[in-house]
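Before drawing any conclusions, I looked closely at one protein, both as residues and as discrete backbone shape codes, quoted below without any editing:
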Amino acid sequence: MKRGTAMANKEDKVDAKQFLAMLLQYSRDEHFNHINFSVRLNRNPAYTRQVLNVNLKRVSKKYGNDERVYTSMTAEVGSQILSLLNQLKEEMYGSGADKIIWQTALLNRTDQEFGYRQIRERDQYNNLEFELLL
């Protein structure tokens, strides 16, 4: 291996549809009813980059309350996920619907209905936060 080639290779972008299907299936199986997406500027003296965090939250009397981190990645790697969710959100608003209905063969039940709630609009640092409600 040539010196420096490991740093030259960029991380592969995540397949958005596959990621969202797995996230929704896991959330349903584990009874999580809130999926929080947060894009924040990570200011580290060595580098500055946008970080995408995905957190799961369960509010339930039957299954108990729980909150956990699902994944964290650079916003560049997760850009296709954000793009897909933005597309679904725009389709929901465009049709006047209250919820997003996503249909794909990747899901066990072929379609998933979920709400969208904006928590923080994009600011001057490109920070953004929104939530999917299952």
Q: What stands out?
A: Strands lie at 34-43, 48-58, 66-74, 100-103, 111-120, 128-133.
